[in-house]
Write a structure and sequence with these properties.
By secondary structure, the chain is mainly beta. Strands 1-2-3-4-8-7-6-5 form an 8-stranded antiparallel beta sheet, with no helix packed on it.
């Protein structure tokens, strides 16, 4: 947690865990003094010694092009970006997950509810570093 605390000076870091398929997985939530909701959730990958995913549902956090939770809509994505969308699974069930992929990162936009079609609103953003294999 030392690295996470150093990355977010002045913020409270709260550890937690979630359970999936009989296994417990740790996470760390980053809070600002004035917020009751976490700014970020950081899920580590202990095997690789790095971050597995950073996500947010907080409306004050902006996406890579200024997108905000609760305001950005599926219709704001261009047609090419909309083609990357698919129905969410597990924790994202009932939503659309749209992916922007680069050589080093994957950025996910999660829109819901799915029944709203083009008016579906951004409810979550996630950043996943793309790991290089050990043989690279």
């Amino acid at each position: 947690t030392t690295a996470i605390r150093a990355a977010f000076p002045g913020h409270e870091i709260v550890p937690g865990q979630y359970f999936s398929e009989g296994h417990a997985y740790p996470f760390f939530e980053v809070y600002h003094d004035t917020s009751q909701d976490p700014l970020f959730r950081i899920e580590p990958d202990w095997k690789l010694g790095q971050i597995r995913i950073v996500s947010t549902r907080h409306p004050s956090v902006k996406g890579p092009s200024g997108e905000t939770i609760g305001a950005y809509r599926l219709s704001d994505l261009n047609q090419h970006e909309q083609k990357t969308c698919s129905e969410g699974q597990n924790e994202n069930s009932g939503s659309l997950v749209c992916i922007q992929q680069t050589a080093n990162t994957q950025f996910q936009y999660i829109f819901g509810p799915i029944q709203d079609g083009q008016n579906a609103v951004l409810i979550k953003m996630s950043y996943l570093p793309v790991s290089k294999s050990v043989t690279d």
